[in-house]
Design goal:
2 helices, about 60 residues, mainly alpha, single chain
Length: about 60
């Protein structure tokens, strides 16, 4: 317990609140970015699969 007491006091409550709000904003933005990224990956997989199937059928796509 002694090492915990030597770390010093906790920051003030407003500073702690601002820190938690900053973490919440980062997580929210990260979720939105990841949602868009997953959609782009799925669209890319579908596009490559369609091009591959068309290539197997003999169509010159690219």
């Amino acid at each position: 317990m002694l090492p915990l007491l030597q770390l010093g006091s906790l920051p003030s409550l407003p500073a702690l609140l601002v820190g938690l709000l900053a973490i919440a904003v980062v997580l929210l933005v990260g979720r939105l970015v990841m949602k868009v990224a997953w959609r782009l990956v799925i669209i890319a997989i579908i596009a490559v699969a369609v091009l591959w199937i068309l290539g197997m059928l003999g169509f010159q796509v690219i």
